[in-house]
Amino acid sequence: MSIDRIFVAGAGLMGHGIGQVHAAIGKQVTLYEPDIARAQAGRDRISGNLDRAIAKGKLTADEGAAILARVATTDSLDGVSSADLVIEAVFEDLEVKRDLWARLDERAPATTIFASNTSSISIDRLAEAVGHERRERFVGMHFFSPVPVMPLVELIRGSATTDATEAAIRGLTEALGKKLIVSADRPGFIVNRILMPMLAEAMRILEEGSATADDIDTGAKVGLNHPMGPLELADFIGLDVCLNVMQVLHDGIGEEHYPPPKILVDLVAAGHLGQKTGRGFHTYPRA
């Protein structure tokens, strides 16, 4: 099927980037937030990204204006009535997502594909929120942050997802110029199944006092040739997000190396969530 109109539910860190990359390839995008000011803030972030690209010579002013003109905002779920594809990019919480999907299912055309940007939650559990006929068009489409820069998308098939739905997402991903990988519907999928235990082990090294946060990050960057240290990366992702994903892994797999470290639990409880709050394993801005 042709995908021309995209409704992005959630205009935050991930959602605005998802909207931007689709508008950049000519798609009509609607950013949804229940508070219109938050939806507009997402569009403003796109505008800022485009202005920086223009300043660097990556886009002309006319190209930037054309991309932005394809991005609309709304605070009404009724805006989904003309969508070919809905991409959900709200907080990584099962019940929050299921509630949203149920309301979207009541309003969207029968042919609309539903794609969740979840980084760890079971697609089948999310799809339980929609009618049986919709479930064949329900899929995981996990982008990575920052979306305009990171070239990977994870596609996660639920038990009812059809080949036609996968083909439609494959074609869209190819048009976006991104690499697609496919995962079974297992906790953490591929990337977070690898990443989160590594971040947790770095946190445990810090927790037991074996090394400083700076030395742990330097060890990964210099010794493993990683572009960012694991504690820096956790701060960038958001410690609340890391905690949620680790809990999903622990609940779904249950092996000893999956429980979230106490140091992470304590930081989140104290409201220290990483870069977005100015403090996590490091303080920000960093000197």
Class computed from helices, strands and strand pairing = alpha/beta
Task: Using the CA coordinates, give the radius of gyration.
Answer: 19 Å
| Overall geometric form | globular
- CATH class of the largest domain, please? Alpha Beta
Total E-strand runs: 8
Overview of this structure, please?
It is a single chain. This protein is of the alpha/beta class and 287 residues long. It has two domains: 179 residues, Rossmann fold (3-Layer(aba) Sandwich), CATH 3.40.50; 85 residues, N-(1-d-carboxylethyl)-l-norvaline Dehydrogenase, domain 2, CATH 1.10.1040. It is 46% helix and 14% strand. The chain has eleven helices and eight strands. Helix 2 runs antiparallel to helix 3. The chain starts with a strand and ends in an 18-residue tail after the last helix.
Topology of this structure?
Layout: E1 5-9, H1 13-24, E2 28-32, H2 36-55, H3 61-69, E3 71-74, E4 85-88, H4 94-107, E5 113-116, H5 123-127, E6 138-143, E7 152-157, H6 163-176, E8 179-183, H7 191-207, H8 213-223, H9 230-237, H10 239-253, H11 262-269
Parallel strand pairs: 1-2, 1-4, 2-3, 4-5, 5-6, 7-8
Antiparallel strand pairs: 6-7
Helix pairs in contact: 1-2, 2-3, 7-9, 7-10
Question: What structural keywords apply?
Answer:
287 residues; alpha/beta; Rossmann fold; N-(1-d-carboxylethyl)-l-norvaline Dehydrogenase, domain 2; 2 domains; eight-stranded mixed beta sheet; 11 helices; 8 strands
Short structural description:
With 287 residues, the chain is an alpha/beta fold. It folds into two domains: 5-183, Rossmann fold (3-Layer(aba) Sandwich); 193-277, N-(1-d-carboxylethyl)-l-norvaline Dehydrogenase, domain 2 (Orthogonal Bundle). The protein has eleven helices and eight strands.
